[in-house]
Specification:
A six-stranded antiparallel β-sheet has the order 1-2-4-5-6-3, covered by helices on one side. It has about 150 residues and is mainly beta. The chain has two helices and six strands; from the N terminus they run αββαββββ.
Length: about 150
């Protein structure tokens, strides 16, 4: 997979390129673009949160708020792009092993641009840990430590 050189205002990876790395698809692919990528080390993604997101129909009627668990999932998807971008991990899947120290510090609403940053802080064999934070307009709205296990897709 080729990664385009980033120009002003350009993403490093488009949605189509992200789908070549991780198995997620709509409506569960929660990352629109990857803005920064250091394969195996860290990635920064962007999610433009639209009022048309399917989860807003029930969370909550009259007061739409992106569910915290989906913010954590979006962070995990960004981390998966980072770790699965390594050539030796091509074709593998990153599965959740644990979510630790999750904190939610603000609401994510329709119209927000959610920036998602996950840095791989430990990796040994097929197990790794990522430090993840989500921001809106530079303000942290969620953070967590995410443990993953690499496995073959079935």
């Amino acid at each position: 997979m080729e990664v385009a050189e980033k120009g002003i205002g350009m993403a490093v990876l488009t949605a189509k390129q992200i789908m070549e790395i991780i198995p997620h698809r709509q409506p569960f692919m929660l990352v629109d673009t990857i803005e920064e990528l250091e394969a195996g080390k860290r990635a920064v993604g962007k999610k433009c949160v639209s009022y048309n997101e399917p989860f807003f129909a029930g969370h909550f009627p009259g007061e739409p708020v992106m569910p915290g668990v989906l913010i954590i999932e979006a962070l995990a998807q960004v981390g998966a792009v980072a770790i699965l971008s390594l050539p030796e991990n091509k074709g593998k899947t990153a599965y959740f092993g644990a979510i630790n120290s999750a904190k939610f510090k603000g609401k994510v609403l329709p119209g927000d641009v959610l920036m998602l940053e996950t840095e791989i802080i430990k990796s040994k064999g097929p197990i790794g840990v990522g430090s993840a934070k989500a921001t809106v307009d530079g303000t942290v709205v969620a953070q967590a430590e995410l443990t993953f296990a690499l496995g073959k897709a079935e």
